[in-house]
Protein: Membrane fusion protein (Multidrug efflux system)
Amino acid sequence: MTVRPRFLTLGTLILLTACGSGEAPQAQPPEIGVLTLKAESATLTTELPGRITAVETSEVRPQISGVIRKRLFTEGSMVQAGQVLYEIEDAPYRAALGTAQGNLAQAQATIASTRAQAERYRSLVGINAVSRQELDNAEAAAKQAAASVAAQKASVQAAQVNLGFTRIRAPISGQIGRSLYTVGALVQAGQADALATIQRTDRVYVDVTQSAAQLLDLKEALRSGSISREGAEGADVQLILPNGKTYPITGRLQFSEVTVDPQSGGVTLRASFPNPDGMLLPGMYVRARLVEGVKRQAILAPQQGISRDPRGRATALVVNAQNKVEQRQVTAERAIGDKWVVSDGLKAGDRLVVEGPIGLQPGTQVKPRAPRQITAAATAGKSGN
Structure:
């Protein structure tokens, strides 16, 4: 089979030449989403781990030795200050009180006779019926009898106190825990183990630890006025419970410790919370969200507009007046929701790049537009409200 060669006609060549001589269309600048930053107020918070402690805690201990005869409370119930919790066998202490009272009566009888004898000797010494030495002996015996009466009165009071201690009472009002001793157990004064523990939990404390550096930064910001706080003392505190939920009642910061822990470099802060339903239990691990104050004229940048360079420094891309991309190094202090609080590197009016192609380089000519994702999220939030 013979293959015939193909030849281009003159018209085809002219057409191809005309098409090749035309200039290629220029590439359009990429569209990117930018957000114009503005200064606004921002509530600064910090989350710190902490433990719940009772406002008052009292360990019930015996003040005398003896055998427990009765337990007069229900474990886990509320008890009132002064309520009898245990009874200790009181027969030995009643006998001791009786002995002390008998000794007191005997001393009182002795003092009457010695006092009368001293009075008689004073009248007789004037007529030399008795010697001066006998009068001195009689007066000394009267004084000794008086001292014996005072000592026996103290013995009676001590015996009455010990008899009262046979009824162990609640030192404070609150919720009592389990009893560590049962009826028939022998207890002793000064023992290490408590019979039971009472805790007052209608209001609780939350002790958290904050670094000394953070505390100093906050005080300097409050002093300079860059952060303001309502009220001269304290700050609002919210609790994040172990199940991740927020405790419905807001607490108040009471005070900060006056010394810094030399091992951790932290300062203990104590917050107070009402606990009417008993939801907060002593020993519970929580996270406390402290409202430090309100920062005026803060620059809040969306987190998608802040990135990190290979050295870990925070950077941002902005669009200048010529619609060209610039890279800036910024200082992102902390996150508030989905935004960073930027203290340096950005200012109000800057157009921050939040949407755009991957690998966008500084100096690139771009076509800015409103960001679609942020605009959609804001519209959804308004419609939801």
Remarks:
- Helices lie at 10-20, 91-125, 132-164, 212-224, 372-384.
- Residues 91-125 form the longest helix (35 residues).
- The chain is about 25% helix and 35% strand.
- Residues 62-89+167-193 form a domain with the OB fold (Dihydrolipoamide Acetyltransferase, E2P) fold (CATH 2.40.50.100).
